[in-house]
Design brief:
The complex is a heterodimer of chains A (149) and B (133). By secondary structure, chain A is of the alpha+beta class. Chain A contains four helices and five strands. Chain A has a domain of 103 residues: Thiol Ester Dehydrase, Chain A, CATH 3.10.129.10. Helix content of chain A is 18%, strand content 36%. Chain B has three helices and five strands; from the N terminus they run E-H-H-H-E-E-E-E. Classes of the chains: A alpha+beta (149), B alpha+beta (133). At the A-B interface, helix 1 and strand 2 of A face helix 1, helix 3 and strand 2 of B. Strand 2 of chain A pairs antiparallel with strand 2 of chain B, so a sheet runs across the interface.
Chain lengths: 149, 133
């Protein structure tokens, strides 16, 4: 049902690793470590700056994949993966985009389930990869039916 | 804080037990992450979705779990972080974060990680691969 979306990509959106957003995020996960929030600790560190927590890329805008129309309710987050080449530095600009890497359906306890694999990318302004984020989203039969009414 | 380099395969990092999950925790995470799915903050919406009540964002738990590794930022960074969401985290649940060293060499340290609730059930599980700097 979503197989036509496989391989489709969003356009690139420029994001900034904002100091205030990093602080707010660190607080929300109970990790107000000085390497995230204290400027002096950042300066003294090997990065010469503060860094962002590894799950911070949640806040970025990855653009819209035109063909992908998902309901905003009823989706189940099954798995989540991050890969980093290096930590994100506070203040830097990141090019972000997303891609549908796979979609398949499988019979489960609650009927036919859809499995959508989304991959998100974050690159520096020269196009060097900094991180990827992969997500498995499970779409239950009830939600799938609703999508086509 | 122990030196990470002294940790042997099969040994654990000091576990962390969070304060009971509150609605305010989830409202804060919704605001900080931009994930406003109402099943995490509004009772009626959670019930409409067939849930017993509001549940934590899976990413809230995953975000919390990563803090076991934050103190080692001068020696390592998280290269890979893989999580499977296993069970719901509900209001007032008491979550404990665990990491046990599974494999290690001179470049990488691979930890099995999980978060468990007050009944000892795994709510998320996966692994963290640290890259030594």
């Amino acid at each position: 049902m979503l197989t036509h979306c496989i391989g489709k990509r969003s356009s690139v959106v420029k994001n900034t690793v904002e100091r205030g957003a990093v602080k707010k995020f660190a607080e929300s996960i109970g990790d107000m470590h000085p390497i995230f929030v204290c400027e002096e600790t950042g300066k003294q560190s090997r990065y010469k700056n503060n860094i962002a927590p590894p799950t911070f890329p949640r806040v970025f805008d990855y653009g819209t994949i035109e063909e992908l129309n998902l309901p905003n309710k009823g989706l189940i987050h099954g798995e989540q993966t991050y890969h980093y080449e290096r930590p994100l530095i506070v203040g830097e600009e990141i090019r972000c985009y997303s891609e549908v890497t796979n979609y398949y359906e499988r019979k489960g306890k609650s009927g036919e389930m859809g499995f959508l694999l989304l991959k998100r990318y974050g690159e520096d302004l020269e196009g060097n990869l900094i991180f990827t984020e992969e997500q498995v989203v499970i779409i239950t039969e009830a939600v799938r039916k609703g999508m086509f009414v | 804080m122990n030196k990470l380099a002294d940790l042997q395969v099969g040994e654990s990092l000091q576990d962390v037990t969070l304060t009971p999950v509150s609605r305010l925790d989830l409202i804060k995470y919704a605001g900080a992450s931009g994930d406003y799915n109402p099943i995490h903050t509004i009772d009626e919406e959670a019930k409409k979705a067939g849930l017993p009540g509001i549940i934590a964002h899976g990413m809230w738990t995953m975000g919390n779990l990563a803090k076991l590794f934050t103190p080692y930022y001068e020696e390592t960074f998280i290269q890979d972080y893989n999580i499977r969401f296993k069970g719901m985290v509900r209001l007032n649940d008491v979550i404990t974060l665990n990491a046990i060293l599974d494999k290690s060499d001179n470049k990488k340290m691979d930890f099995k990680v999980n978060a468990t609730n007050q009944d000892g059930q795994e709510v998320i599980k996966g692994n963290v691969l640290l890259c030594k700097i």
